[in-house]
Amino acid sequence: MLVKDVMTTKIVNVSPDNSVRHAARVMLDNHISGVPVVDDEGCLVGLISEGDLIRRTELGGVAPMVEAALAAEDRANAYVKRSSWRVGDAMTANPITIDENMSVARVATVMQERGIKRIPVLRNGVLVGIVSRADLLQAILSAKEDETAAGDEAIRRSILVRLGENTGLEALDVRVDVTDGVVHLWGNVKTADCRRAARILAENVRGVRGVVDHFSDPHPQ
User: Fold this and answer.
1) Residue from 8, 12, 16 nearest 25 by CA
2) 15-45 burial, b for 16+ CB within 10 Å, e for fewer?
3) Secondary structure class of 12 (helix, strand, coil)
4) Fewest CB atoms less than 10 Å from the CB: which of 70, 97, 125, 198?
5) Contact, 23 vs 87, CB < 8 A?
């Protein structure tokens, strides 16, 4: 699944010359936590979000001790960001952007690694959408169900393939039998996390009616 399949294309944006109060009102009225900032030529120049506003002067600013260790230039920049009435001063400039043809899996990784909730989407450098964590949740609901063919042998083969797909079980020589849709697992799987991963892997295969593991007790008496 690609970004263009899940992104929001009805984009609400603000100008860098708008007031911070206007940006806050736009976010509240549209029930969103951040908006792209676009200049008069339609170019993306930043992103303003709740995170940019939580240290505003209107909210009491930030405790002086928090910024005391910063260099003078950094303190000045922090002061401008929390005190200026302009969106262009308070926003995050040069935000991370992605191409509409990036995979949803890669976007989820970027969000996790960078600790961000939304990313502007570009097509040939032009803003065409925005993808948020909420869009990724919707993608989970829209994901196709497993298409494993019916039958015990098909289920067994599907489980064996998945065991080698970055599950943590690749080197554990897990053996699989399936009888009337019930999966039986054997092997040298000693940790509780690996046992749980093996069970969930099997449960996620279409047609599985139950899972029985015959692994040795990870905590023998």
Assistant:
1) 12
2) bbebebeebbebbeeeebebbbbbeeeeebb
3) coil
4) 125
5) yes
**Residue-range domain boundaries for the chain:** 3-142, 152-213
**pLDDT (tens digit per residue) in 157-188:** 999 998 888 888 888 889 999 999 999 999 88
* Contact status, residue 169 vs residue 163, Cβ threshold 8 Å: yes
CATH fold of 3-142 reads CBS-domain (3.10.580)
> pLDDT (tens digit, 9 = 90+) per residue, 15-50?
999 999 999 999 999 999 899 999 988 889 999 999
Topology, domain 152-213: Histidine-containing Protein; Chain: A; (3.30.1340)
Residue (of 157, 161, 194, 163) closest to 178 by Cα position: 157
